[in-house]
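User: Continuing from earlier, I have the next pair ready.

Assistant: Great, send them over.

User: Here they are, in order.

Assistant: Folding the first of the pair now:
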Amino acid sequence: MSLFLPFSFMNHFDHLPSEVISLILNHVDETCDLYTCALINKTFYKYATPLLWEHLDLNDHRTFSYLIDGLEASSSLQSNSLGESVRSASIQDGFLIDDDLLAFIKHVPQLNDLSLHDPAFISDDSFEHVPLYVPHLTRLYIRYSNIKQLSIEAMSRHWYRQLNHLELIYCTDLSYELFSALRQCTALTSLDISYCRLESNKAIDTIQDAARNVMALPNITSFRIIHIGLNCTPFLPITPTVQQQQQQQQEWRILPTLFPDDYFDDPPSTPITPLQPQPIWPYLTHFYLGSCREPDRCQWRWR
């Protein structure tokens, strides 16, 4: 919403209740308009500033360094730190190092959405401490990272109750063991592990253990794994026992219609017979196994 108010109304801004000001600002969509609001008077500044800091999109190292300096200066003031207002952050900084990440993350305790693009120099030495500083995180996206199992275990220990969306893309130092740690994250609804290789142990029993750990997640609605040469058979949904069917009969959803991946955007007029057996995930709506050795069985999506 572009902000435009008549001049006669602007003369009475000092008399507006704070609740009205807050309501006005919550309907301002453009960042430039929020900046304008922050300059009207002290009351507008007080309520507009947290909205301006709610989402941070950082795409170069110099900006990131300035931000850390500003957060540190703000935290030394008697008033609330600006970092308290930050709810989501997307960091695209290929020169980010461990000290930089910790210097930032310790000032944003209310962060619930974190995206790290190309954090090639971030290691377990720093990342395993991140959950201690941002205990409320619900969404995590990491692309091109060198984090290992220690970081995954730290996530599971501290975020198991609230982390519901996890994407690990091109994190090539991970292995199938990550699924054993993620089994504790029972709040997960969306899990995407793509191009992470997971090659430290490709024995079929290891992959089966990984599949069982994924299937133990009770609230999954979307599961995606893309892995070159993947033997996907263990990840295919399995049929529950008769006893499980009787116990969960009221919770199970009907298996959605299944289409091949190529037809996902333009499905054929006659649906293809769904894969059998039924999945054990009661809420599953999206299931994708890509780049596997058995494409006729794996490259499918449920609609």
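And the other member of the pair:
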Amino acid sequence: MSGTREIAEAIAARIRASSHEVDVLDAADVRSVLPYKAVIVGSALYAGRWRPEAVKLLQRNADLLARRPVWLFHSGPLGTEQVPQRAPRKVRDLAARIGADEPKTFGGRLTPQTAVGFFAKKMANGPMAGDYRDWDEIELWAYEIAQQLVSAR
């Protein structure tokens, strides 16, 4: 399971604990957000880029997303000294169009067991390899979303 998917599952679990129904879907499998009252979209951040399927989800559903609460996150920075990473311009522009804040940055995971592709495998055996996700930070962010959803009821 991808590191970003694991973050999404943790967010979903926290929001479910606040008595909300939650679906966790791959961005490529979402044709429309119409059935949802609120949406969280996450992507891995590779070389400063979001996954294309996550960007396409935002583009395809921009009008619908503009009419519901939306939160965005990305994961990917490696290392112990992490600073929030700006989303690519296209994602920042889409966030502004739909009325969402810039994406929340979470640390990423890159290990020899999970690396895919030549460069990732090389990096996974280097000094930046590891799991830099801060589960307390993820839990807190999800809790804040759950509280906003409760307030919106």
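Worth noting for the second one:
The helical segments are 3-16, 52-60, 62-65, 89-98, 118-124, 135-152. The two ends are 33 Å apart (CA to CA).
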